[in-house]
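Shipment paperwork, digital attachment
Item: protein structure file
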Amino acid sequence: MEPMTADAPAPASRRVLLAAPRGYCAGVDRAVIAVEKALEQYGAPVYVRHEIVHNKYVVQTLERKGAIFVERTEEVPEGSIVMFSAHGVAPVVHEEAARGKLATIDATCPLVTKVHKEAIRYANEDFDILLIGHEGHEEVIGTSGEAPDHITIVDGPHDVEKVTVRDESKVVWLSQTTLSVDETMETVDALKTKFPLLVSPPSDDICYATSNRQEAVKVMGKDCDLVIVVGSKNSSNSIRLVEVALDAGAKASYLVDFANEIDEAWLEGVTTVGLTSGASVPEVLVEEVLEWLAARGYADVEIVKTAEESIVFSLPKELRRDLRAEAAELVGAQGGATGPASDAVSGPVPGAQK
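Attachment content:
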């Protein structure tokens, strides 16, 4: 190898821009802890309807501890405990649990519950509700179920043209909490053009964590050759981070669950790697990616911080009761889940505590 001359350019230093905030939001943290506490308090199995949060690692870890994930309420054996995921469920699911004589723990994120309550209120006022969100996503299914006769799903700006309403003076928009902020506002603008009297919710439905994580990626994306987003393929907010990175100017962006999914070919010609994670991703997975990158020369890590987060949500109140005993009482009751035992295992999700 020939020695480097004074005129030769120095090799570009490799670095990682690490987004902050990233990873777990308050709603995800609450839901995961709720499953762990339920397993500690009541013992296995605890059934969970759908994935508690959209993250492969989290689900596999909780399965090893004794959680059983099911797609339908009917799969849960009579007299068992079932937890509803952070994405929320429609009222019909609570009815299914009552018919199945199940004790329930509702781990719906309080910010999702806020959207449910908005849907109920506007439906009671006979508004047409335009719900901006992805068709088939658990959160959208749950919110739609609160007022199915009043809600129309709008899956992005391209959907606006086909939307019809009964009365253009009584139309309101709501949204899924994990969407792209920019695309959602693009959809809202298109809806306002079509329906000038469109009402907006009292506050944004997209959650603070989704907005904060997208903003951090916007800031760092323009300086990155590559942005790696740690998150699962069924995580809406994680997928949005890939899109935001590309829109912000990153030359490439990829979604991975684990460090071993990164293709070394992605690093060819890359000086700056951006790294972030979705709102349902534990920090251990980010640390593994940092180690993987450091082993390939990207040891210089610079944090790009755009917001502070301090919100904490209280755990579901059902964890303060003996749900095994309540489940047994439900099974023993004649005529299904009625009376005090039934009332005790359902009810509103507790609000946020700052």
